[in-house]
Design goal:
With about 130 residues, the chain is mostly beta strands. It has one domain: Jelly Rolls. It is about 5% helix and about 40% strand. It starts with about 30 loop residues before the first strand and ends with a strand. Pfam families: Cupin_2.
Length: about 130
């Protein structure tokens, strides 16, 4: 896709405000801070900060995948542990960054109490499928 065929984008800025973290997103054990990217890109991409709000429980470890074109996660605080099909178990720490190829099966294996992640996904609207 070249720039001329991309949706028109607008400038946006988002400054940290703890009051902007909202629950009710994809994961019920997390709060999300929308960074305004979905609106500014007219759905081309989304970006948010994810703050873990509950302790890890094995019941949350379900194999799943996201039907996306691109997904990048960066650890802002703490650590986050996942298992990826064909890759194995990975523990990401503050400053770690990973890119999940489209539709890669994975499951969450744990996180620190202070864990915060930056997640960037293309496109904004996408399906998450639980694989059983």
């Amino acid at each position: 896709m070249n720039a001329s065929s991309s949706p028109a984008q607008t400038f946006t800025v988002s400054h940290l405000d703890d009051a902007e973290f909202r629950t009710g997103g994809l994961r019920n054990y997390s709060a999300y801070r929308d960074l305004g990217i979905a609106m500014a890109t007219r759905g081309l991409a989304t970006a948010h900060v994810i703050r873990m709000t509950a302790p890890y429980s094995e019941s949350l470890s379900q194999w799943h995948h996201h039907d996306v074109q691109f997904q990048l996660i960066y650890v802002l605080k703490g650590w986050f542990k996942s298992e990826f099909e064909g890759v194995g178990v990975q523990t990401m720490r503050e400053g770690s960054c990973w890119m999940q190829p489209p539709n890669i099966r994975h499951r969450v294996l744990g996180w620190s109490d202070d864990c915060e992640l930056l997640e960037i996904i293309l496109p904004t609207e996408h399906a998450t499928v639980v694989d059983g």
